[in-house]
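Async update (no meeting this week)

Hi team, since we skipped the sync, here's where things stand on the single-chain job. The sequence we agreed to prioritize is pasted below, unchanged from the tracker. I ran it this morning and attached the output directly underneath so nobody has to dig for it. Comments welcome in thread, and please keep replies under the output.
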Amino acid sequence: METIFFAIVSLVAIVSAILVVTCKNPINSALSLIMTFFCLATYYVMLDAPFMAAVQVMVYAGAIMVLMVFTIMLLNIRVDANKKQSHSVILGSIIGLFTLLNTVIMLVKSRAAAPTGPYSGDMIKTIGHTELIGREMFTNFLLPFEITSILLLVAIVGAVILAKKKI
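Output:
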C-alpha cells in the first residue's frame, strides 16, 4: 500500500515539476511549484518527519510562494508566446537527460547507507523531532541561523526599495 501511495505521489511530483519548467504563464508555474512542495511534504510525512513536513508547507508552500507570486505580480511579467528559444530548450533537454542518466546509474550501482549521527531512532521518538531540531539550531547552528535571518531582512528591504517608484 505504501509503495502504491509513493508511486502516485512521485508521479504527481514529477508532472508538477515538469509543469514548473514548461508553463508559459509565471503564475501557473508558481502554482505547479506549490504542488511540488506539497508532494515533498508528503515524502517527509512518509519518512516519519512531521515537523519537517509542517515546515515545508508553512515556509515554502506558504511564505516563499506568496512572496514569489507577489513579485511576479509586482513586476508585471508579460509572456511573449511567439518568442522561440530552441537553443535553450535543446541545452536544457540535454542537461536534464544527462542528470536523469546519472541518477539512474547512481541508484543502480549504490546501496543505502546506514543512518549515522549522535541521535538514534529511539532517542528521536522519545525526545521528539521539534525539540532536537530546536536544540541543534540554537546551540550548534546559531550563527548561520542569525546570518540567514539578516540576509532575508536585507532581501525584503531591497525588494521594497526596488518596488517603490520614488524614494
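Quick observations from my side:
The domain at 1-79 is CATH 1.20.120.1200 (Four Helix Bundle (Hemerythrin (Met), subunit A)).
The chain has seven helices and no strands.
Reply here if anything looks off.
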